[in-house]
Specification:
The structure holds two protein chains of two kinds. Chain A is an all-beta fold. Chain A is 0% helix and 51% strand. Chain A has strands at 3-7, 11-12, 18-25, 35-41, 48-54, 59-61, 69-74, 79-84, 93-100, 107-110, 114-118. In chain A, a hairpin with a 6-residue loop joins strand 4 (35-41) and strand 5. The N and C termini of chain A lie far apart (40 Å). Chain B is an all-beta fold. In chain B, 0% of the residues lie in helices and 44% in strands. Chain B is built from no helices and nine strands. In chain B, strand 5 and strand 6 form a beta hairpin. Chain B starts with 8 loop residues before the first strand and ends with a strand. The chains are: A mainly beta, B mainly beta. Chain A binds chain B through residues 37, 39, 46-49, 52, 60, 62-63, 96, 101, 104-113, and chain B through 2, 34, 36, 38, 45-48, 51-52, 57, 89, 91-93, 96-104.
Amino acid sequence: QITLKESGPTLVKPTQTLTLTCTFSGFSLSTSGVGVGWIRQPPGKALEWLALIYWNDDKRYSPSLKSRLTITKDTSKNQVVLTMTNMDPVDTATYYCAHKVAGTIAFDIWGQGTMVTVSS
Amino acid sequence: QSALTQPASVSGSPGQSITISCTGTSSDVGGYNYVSWYQQHPGKAPKLMIYDVSNRPSGVSNRFSGSKSGNTASLTISGLQAEDEADYYCSSYTSSSPWVFGGGTKLTVL
């Protein structure tokens, strides 16, 4: 059974750097084709894809946020970490991590999400 | 503004069928067979309902089906049930992103 869980601060100040950790179980990020992605959702708004890391350490970023994002993995700890610099109130959202199915782009299992508020 | 266009809302009565459209371009929906659909109930994480245009994950009801024509993908729900009331999002591979979501559609079961 695949599970993912996001953790990190619930409140950050403008200009600060946000660091979120996705801890997963039930799969290995060393398996060919597998990936873990980050997706966010501002309150009452649509989903927005942020970043994804593949089993082979290949990384993809949203073009509009690429300069602010870094995604890394620790295979031994079954964790994926997302950092976002220069946080702004418009970055207030629920942040989800999700498992990408090998062979397709779909995210089949999602974490419960973690709400991050950006405010001074 | 989302790259994929969905209607803001659709509605239907129990037992009826509804279709939600997802319109993109030849650089995303029209160019690849990598369209997914997600269901999201209030306060919950999204759930994968359809992947690769028309495939259902194990455990998803066969009342849900997907299709694509040109630059528009569609999600059809037949035999509408009260539990289907939720927000629905499409997603596609895109040559530039490579993931993009639609703006979401609120389904109301009357």
